[in-house]
Design goal:
This protein is of the alpha/beta class and 354 residues long. It has two domains: 162 residues, NAD(P)-binding Rossmann-like Domain (Rossmann fold); 158 residues, no CATH class. The chain starts with a strand and ends with a helix.
């Protein structure tokens, strides 16, 4: 079966998804939305460094809404406030298009009925579904850590730790304004929910720990934060610009699901520009620690084959794979908010299956 797909945005992650759609024999690129005026009017194949597709990039949402498509891969840049893209997503849903977002929306029920209502009404109007996908949110906590608990008789605490090297990020606005790198640490409170980067990150990851708590049957009391920022040990030159000594070079974002007055689930994310403040400089991308009966500990890294010839990072391929593999299940799902499934498995292309 073939699915018509619209790619929304073509940043580093979006271009990887665009290539994945163009290359997949069971997917047909139906449209392309871009934010950069310089990309408007260009063929999608040109933007993706692929042969011409006949699909021309547009920055007019009305043109996208009029297209016939099964799903929109919504990969807009993460931006404050967390709800910034909600209106666009609702318009896409109301037009009859399923939407997969890589920037949260994994468990919008956490924010209450008033927040949820706009998504639900859009889904009802369009007969469509919304899914939050990707690696985190979407894969490591929502799927892998969740499945690991299936062998436990009892659970005391679950901690999922992610460590990401951010030095290759190229957009200065994103790195310094959205993520808070380079800011003077004095006077900044990363646990202030009104501070832009904290509001943005809290929006995504409060949903993640709340979702896992609900899946495990816990009565969640609240989600609390325990964010810590570390100063640069020396000046650091990054792809996005320089971080002066003493400026924020490492943020450990931490969210805790409080159950019965105790921290039952912790999501910990180290976004780093240097390794000086890590306990283990030889880190893996993800570590999952379950304290219970039995205890479970495992580490996960992503990599590429030795003969891989492209500059695309394994994490970018992972996000694209997560979205592409979610398309059949999302299209088949009834209208509404789709809970992150425990298994949207890789499916061989129809040509291979035959």
């Amino acid at each position: 079966m073939s699915y018509r797909v619209i790619q929304w945005a073509t940043g580093a992650m979006g271009k990887t998804c665009l290539r994945a759609v163009i290359d997949h024999p069971d997917l047909e690129l139906a449209g392309l939305y871009v934010y950069n005026p310089a990309k408007v009017g260009r063929d999608a194949g040109d933007i993706a460094r692929r042969p011409a597709t006949g699909v021309i990039a547009t920055n007019e949402i009305e043109a996208i809404l009029q297209l016939e498509a099964d799903v929109v891969l919504h990969t807009a840049q993460l931006d404050a406030p967390y709800c910034r893209h909600n209106a666009d997503i609702c318009r896409l849903l109301a037009s009859g298009k399923n939407v997969i977002s890589i920037n949260g929306h994994s468990y919008p029920q956490f924010w209450g009925q008033e927040y949820l209502r706009a998504f639900e009404e859009a889904c009802r109007e369009g007969g469509s579904s919304l899914l939050g996908g990707g690696l985190n949110p979407g894969f490591i906590t929502d799927k892998i850590a969740t499945i690991a608990t299936s062998i436990c008789l009892d659970i005391e605490h679950i901690e999922v730790t992610e460590t990401i090297d951010c030095r290759i990020m190229q957009n200065p606005d994103y790195v310094f304004d959205m993520l808070g790198f380079g800011k003077p640490g004095d006077g900044l409170d990363p646990n202030d929910p009104t501070w832009g980067p904290a509001e943005l990150m809290n929006g995504m990851y409060s949903e993640v720990v709340a979702h896992l708590a609900r899946r495990l049957g816990y009565a969640l009391q609240r989600v609390e934060t325990d964010h810590v920022m570390y100063p640069a040990s020396a000046a650091i030159d990054t792809s996005a610009g320089r971080i002066d000594k003493g400026g924020v070079s490492h943020t450990n974002w931490r969210w805790h699901a409080i159950v019965d007055g105790s921290r039952r689930i912790t999501q910990s994310i180290h976004w780093i520009m240097e390794k000086a403040h890590l306990n283990d400089p030889d880190y893996t991308t993800w570590e999952v620690r379950v304290r219970g009966l039995p205890c479970i500990d495992f580490k996960i890294d992503l990599g590429l084959t030795d003969d891989h010839a492209y500059r695309t990072m394994p994490e970018q391929y992972g996000v694209a794979g997560s979205l592409v593999n979610a398309i059949p299940g999302l299209v088949e799902a009834p209208p509404g908010i789709r809970e992150v499934p425990l298994g949207d498995l890789f499916r061989a292309p129809s040509s291979a299956a035959s």
